[in-house]
Amino acid sequence: MTGRDRFLTALKRKQPDRVPIWELIINEPTLSALYGDIGYFALAEKIGLDAVTVFENQRTRDLGNGVFQDEWGIKWGIEPCGASYPLGGPIKTKSDLDSYKAPDPNADHRLDTLKEAVRRFKGEKAIAICCHEAFEFSHYLYGMTNLFMAYIEDPEFVHRLARIVVDYKKAILNRTVDEGLDVVVSGDDYAFRTAPLMSPAFFDEYCAPYIKEMADAAHARGVPFVKHTDGYIWPILDAVVNAGVDAIDPIEPIAGMDIGEVKAKYGDRVAVVGNVDCTEILTHASREEIIDAVKETIAKASVGGGHVIASSNSIHPGVNPESYRTMVETAKEFGVYPLDEKMVAEYRTRNYVSKYLARS
């Protein structure tokens, strides 16, 4: 099987030749530490990922002091490792929305990285774009506190703002499929480690309908829709699954999300993606602990197919590069179907994060 075939088979909840390996994001220093400064695509080839992730291209304006502004008018800061974080958006008051215009989704430069991925990997690796629905860009534009206050005081404003974001994201989705995309991934996060950011009622009103709209748009174009959100999502997981997504990523174990429990409850409706812990295990655990964590994840999630192995969020700047290499190598060794029945029996009842949960 090609990596693309392997990845798409798992997303259909079927069993490929081995458990596919993917990562939403790989940051520095891992990106350069393993094979030198060769870039993300070359790293994906060398380490043997079955899918690659791309992002839409934004032109930015340097504001100085490590701050830049994107085409949405959102200001961002940059960490020393290169990761960015939002500092504030252009919508300061509700009246600002009346004159606000989103960027042009049809701009020529918008899909440059995707086009490069298609030229390099089409038919060999699955090509996924990290897109969004309404929530994340709404709070980038207006501020999270302001957005949550508007949930209570001005629902109409919230939906108007969401409509601007989702219409843009749907236009991007359709363009990406035209260019050869294989998978849409929504990157909006909805939870802390201990609870969702909002009540299930607010989630049902302000988030779930837009997840469904984006999932429906992907399905109308014949591509699967993967929903990413880390944190403790049990209170909202029914709503996410009911929105029609094809897979849940990354099912964060240290947030109390056991991937085996998620698969047992929802595995007939969605694939599962994840969930080797990147908070404790991939940052400073021993090689033996990493191997055990991967074997446990496979034992709980991979039986019968429908599982893509990945970290519990991303390969962030705190991840030990050699630990990530160990994770990938172990997944390749023990993720071959048919799975080792003795390994599955030994590891499926374990809980490697329990000792870390006891400390928190």
Straight-line N-to-C gap: 42 Å
Count of domains: 1
Number of strands: 11
* CATH class descriptor name: Alpha Beta
Q: What's the helix and strand layout?
A:
Blueprint: H1 3-11, H2 30-33, H3 40-47, E1 51-54, E2 61-64, E3 67-69, E4 75-78, E5 84-88, H4 96-99, H5 112-121, E6 126-131, H6 135-142, H7 144-153, H8 155-179, E7 183-186, H9 200-206, H10 208-220, E8 225-229, H11 234-242, E9 247-250, H12 259-266, E10 271-273, H13 281-284, H14 287-301, E11 307-308, H15 321-334, H16 341-347, H17 354-359
Parallel strand pairs: 1-6, 6-7, 7-8, 8-9, 9-10, 10-11
Antiparallel strand pairs: 2-3, 3-4, 4-5
How would you describe this protein?
- It contains 17 helices and eleven strands.
- By secondary structure, the protein is of the alpha/beta class.
- Strands 1-6-7-8-9-10-11 form a seven-stranded parallel beta sheet. A four-stranded antiparallel beta sheet has the order 2-3-4-5.
- Helix 6 (135-142) packs across helix 7 (144-153) and helix 8 packs parallel to helix 10.
- It is globular.
